[in-house]
Amino acid sequence: MDKPTIDEILAGLSRSREEGTEEPNRYTAVMVTAKRARQINSYYHSLGDGAGLDVFAAPPVTGFSRNYLSIALAEAARGEIKYRLRSARQ
């Protein structure tokens, strides 16, 4: 897998992060893109069930990949994924 690179993904996540939060790292990139890939998977599986589609966000139709993780990585690199990190409980 050549595109997007980890630097492009981190730059996209950096653009979409909330103000006052720390810069994303590789661990953040893995967690955010894996969660988005699961959302895309749930969306496509719910199409056949007739479930309420308002629960899952539909992926934008900008790529030709059928791999959910590749779609999520491309979205992250473009800065289309908004995320929020929960603070650690002490």
What percent of residues adopt helix (DSSP H or I)? Answer: 40-55%
Tally of separate domains: 1
Overall 3D shape? globular
Main sheet: strands, sense, barrel: none
Radius of gyration: 14 Å
Helix-strand topology string: HHH
Model regions low in confidence, pLDDT < 50 over at least 5 residues = none
Taking all residues together, what is the mean pLDDT?
81
Q: Structural class of the helix and strand makeup?
A: mainly alpha
Number of strands: 0
Q: Given the structure, what is the number of helices?
A: 3
Hey, roughly how much beta strand do the residues contain?
under 5%
Distance between the ends: 39 Å
Report on the architecture of this protein.
The chain has 90 residues and is mostly helical. Helix content is 50%, strand content 0%. It has one domain (6-77). The protein is built from 3 helices and no strands. The radius of gyration is 14 Å and the shape is globular. 21% of the residues are buried.
Write a brief structural summary.
The chain has 90 residues and is an all-alpha fold. The chain has helices spanning 6-16, 26-49, 68-77. Helices cover 50% and strands 0% of the residues.
What's the arrangement of secondary structure elements?
Elements: H1 6-16, H2 26-49, H3 68-77
Helix pairs in contact: 1-3, 2-3
